[in-house]
Amino acid sequence: MDPLLTVEEAADLLHTSVRFVRRLIAERRIEFVKVGRHVRITESALITFVLAGTVAPITIPKQRRAA
């Protein structure tokens, strides 16, 4: 089982604010675990969230110039 991270620890790993992580939780955009009244996030849930938002770069083929 992945270690459970606090909201603050998750924000540090994502290099974002605590408010952003809390908004992700409120909007149910990230998987979380409730331990009593505390909210915890698994490291794998953070990785899944980041991978889901990853955008692949577009490669534009080089055009040949007419000589």
Write the topology of this structure:
Blueprint: E1 4-5, H1 7-14, H2 18-26, E2 33-35, E3 38-42, H3 43-52
Antiparallel strand pairs: 1-3, 2-3
Helix pairs in contact: 1-2
Question: Could you say which overall geometry the principal axes of the C-alpha atoms support?
Answer: elongated
Number of helices: 3
Distance between the termini: 62 Å
Q: What's the alpha carbon Rg, rounded to whole Å?
A: 18 Å
Strand order of the largest sheet: 1-3-2
Q: Helicity level, as a percent range?
A: 40-55%
Low-confidence stretches: none
Order of helices and strands: EHHEEH
**Main sheet attributes: strand count, strand direction, barrel closure:** 3 strands, antiparallel
> How much is the average pLDDT?
93
Strand content: 5-15%
Structural class: alpha+beta
User: How many individual β-strands?
Assistant: 3
